[in-house]
Amino acid sequence: MLLKNLSSKEIKEISKTVAPKLVKHPVFMFYCKNADNRQNFIEDYFNYFLKKWNKKEIILTNDSRDLIISLVDIETYHSKDKGLGASKLKKYKNPYANVSYHQGNVSYLANIVAPANISTKIMTVYAALKYLNEVDKLVDEAIKLAEENDFMIVYETFSKKSIETMSNKGFETAYEKQFSTTQYFETVMTYYKNDFTTPAKLIKEFKPITINEEPEKDAAEYEEF
């Protein structure tokens, strides 16, 4: 289901619904290491970003609106956060810094693996693997949109378990490496309907800065997308 022109009330309702489902999502475990604050942080995260994406980006969800797939233009994926919603996020000092760092990292990699002459959107799946069937349908919807509108999808994940799912849909692995000093293994995949020339600039070594060296707990199984 494609979400368009969401009202402030709808954004708040969706954020409140999806937040408890993502408490053990690897990305949010990296963003917010304090489990006691994580659900509130996730809710504020979506209150801000759904409003931001609502203007120009693609947002997909299921009938119960408890999982989200975003497709965000590569040029605006890592942009300056401003406004009241951003101020609420910035109150979570370390989590907010981690969001900015992670988005910067994904944007950097996406700009390397995606050719400059191809329109590109970065896809993020906010869902647990137990939603596999629903995610499967929404990713197919994302692929259809990409083919109809001729853009490449760049997909980044901390979950090893989602790679096979995406590979079966035609995504190709472009980059994989341990993420910073964490125990997460980051994978970047691409989907494009046509063949394209390999980018001239290839990744040989990427050494991101370290924000927090504290190891994540309860993340070994990578149960989320």
Structure notes:
The structure is a single chain. With 225 residues, the protein is an alpha+beta fold. Helices cover 40% and strands 17% of the residues. It has seven helices and seven strands. A seven-stranded mixed sheet has the order 1-2-3-4-5-7-6, with helices on both faces. β4, α6 and β5 form a beta-alpha-beta unit. α1 runs antiparallel to α3. It is globular, with a radius of gyration of 16 Å. The two termini are 19 Å apart. About 10% of the residues have low confidence.
What topology does this entry show?
Elements: E1 2-3, H1 8-18, H2 26-31, H3 35-56, E2 58-61, E3 68-73, H4 84-90, H5 93-113, E4 120-126, H6 132-149, E5 152-157, H7 163-168, E6 172-178, E7 185-191
The pLDDT mean sits at: 86
Structural class: alpha+beta
Helix content: 40-55%
Beta-strand content bin? 15-25%
A few lines on this structure:
With 225 residues, the chain is of the alpha+beta class. 40% of the residues lie in helices and 17% in strands.
Output the keywords:
7 helices, 17% strand, alpha+beta, 7 strands, single chain, 225 residues, seven-stranded mixed beta sheet, globular
